[in-house]
Structure formats: C-alpha cells, structure tokens
Amino acid sequence: MMETADKDTDYSVPALARGLSVLGLFNAQVRSLGIQDIAEQLGVSTSAIYRILFTLTHMGYLNKRNTQYELGARVISDGFSYLASRDIVEVAMTHLNELRDKTSLSCHLSIREHTDSLYLYRAFAAQRLSVNIPVGTRIACHCTAMGRMLLTELDDRRLAALYQHIRLDDYPAPAPRTLPELQATISEDRERGWVLHRSDYSTAIATSIKDHTGAVTAAINLSGPDAVMDSQGAQARFQDLLMACRERISESLGYRE
C-alpha cells in the first residue's frame, strides 16, 4: 500500500497544488492577503510563492492592490461560478419542484455567464413531450426567455459593452439581430417582468430572481409543449404560478420590495 501511495505521489504537480492552495486561502471572511501572510499559511518562503502569485495574477485568478492580493474575476467566470451558485440551487430547488408538481411542466434555473445562460437546475417533468434541458447547458442569453430576463439587470450602456464584439445577426429570428433591437427588447422585458418565448413546438415563460441587494441574480422558467401551453386559460395560470414562485425564491434570498 505504501508503495502504491508513493507511485501516486509521483504524478502530482506541486506547483499546481500550491496554486490551488493559494486560492483556497480566500473566503467570505478573508478577502485579501499579503505575500507574507500567504507564505506563512502555506509554510513556504516568500520567494517560493512569488512566481505562483505572479502567474495567478497574470491569468486573472488574483488581483493585486498595492501589497495585497484578492480573488480575481476569472475565479468566477471560468466555472467556479457553478460551485459558488450552489446556495441559490439549494434555495430554489424545493420551490421549483413544487411548481413542477402543480403544473406538470418542466422548470429550470439559470444564471448569466457573460452572454450565456447557464442552466444550474432542472425540475424534471416526466410527461411525454416535456421540455427538459440538462444541467450545465449554455444557451445565448438573447435567444431564450430566461436569458433575456437575466439581461434585464443591465442598462443600455452595459448591454452595449457586453455585446460590443458579439455578432447578433448570426442568430435566427425571433432573436434580436442588432444592438438597438436587443436594447429595446430587454427594456420591454424589464418593464413587463416576464418573457414568453416560443421555439420548436414548445413555449417557455420566464422571470427573474433577485437577491438581497435587489440585483437580478438568476432566472427561472416553466416550459412545455405548445399544445399544453396554449390551452384556454393555461398561460395566465402558469404565469401566476411562476411569479408566485419567483417571489418565494427571492424572499428566501433576502429580497424585499
């Protein structure tokens, strides 16, 4: 057993392990650290840790402010956001499961990563012809109901900055195909508070989730086949249930109107 353990150790990458250990020193209580603090906590010299800090800073995983280091934006943008979003999944899943049970429709939860809507949770509807998008799926925000609700957090200036290098005309209608069209669409979505979107014989109704600061932090939807969604009075009933679910999740995250 000892011989096997020694062989496994031969495959480890000490520099990578040390870099991940550096990132692990930061948390909600510890927002910034100096090089001496980092070296002492890892039990190494400052010279041994300097190149790792330089590399992490250069790649965007750390920011350096004067003599202090803090987590950089890339820690969130390159997949760590999925792990950081576990709390919202835990809060939302019970409410989405209840919504699924009341409607017999699929319910999804997503967050925005750059211009993509990243699906974090799915309350699976077992009925035939149900719409079930796997967790981890990414779809361009401006093409989906949930994605458009996620974009309502951004004003025209921030939308323009986000889509500065994105070609909208590469996407088929009914997705907005120009920046002014996108800005007008999102403004209307923000005012309305929900989005209905049709595609491939299915319909989705989506709305936004807000956190304790009032910021749009996620989106949820109900989705099902047109035959179900278009039945008399169905859309109004589903929309009311979705908006009530939104209120419960947002309140659980500390949002107060």
Write up this protein.
By secondary structure, the protein is α+β, with helices and mostly antiparallel strands. Helices cover about 45% and strands about 20% of the residues. The chain is built from eleven helices and nine strands. Strands 6-5-4-9-8-7 form a six-stranded antiparallel sheet, sandwiched between helices. Strands 1-3-2 form a three-stranded antiparallel sheet. A hairpin with a 5-residue loop joins strand 8 and strand 9 (about 215-225). It starts with a helix and ends in a 5-residue tail after the last helix. The relative contact order is 0.10.
Terminal CA distance reads 60 Å
Helix content: 40-55%
Q: Order of strands in the sheet with the most strands?
A: 6-5-4-9-8-7
Low-confidence stretches: 1-5
Give the name of the CATH superfamily of the largest domain. Answer: GAF domain
Largest sheet: 6 strands, antiparallel
Q: Tell me the domain tally.
A: 2
Corresponding CATH architecture of the largest domain: 2-Layer Sandwich
DSSP strand tally: 9
Mean pLDDT: 86
Oligomer designation: single chain
CATH topology of the largest domain: Beta-Lactamase
Question: How many helices?
Answer: 11
Question: What CATH first level of the largest domain would be assigned?
Answer: Alpha Beta
| Spatial extent as radius of gyration | 22 Å
| Series of H and E elements | HHEHHEEHHEEEHHHEEEHH
- Overall geometry comes to elongated
The structure class reads alpha+beta
Strand content: 15-25%
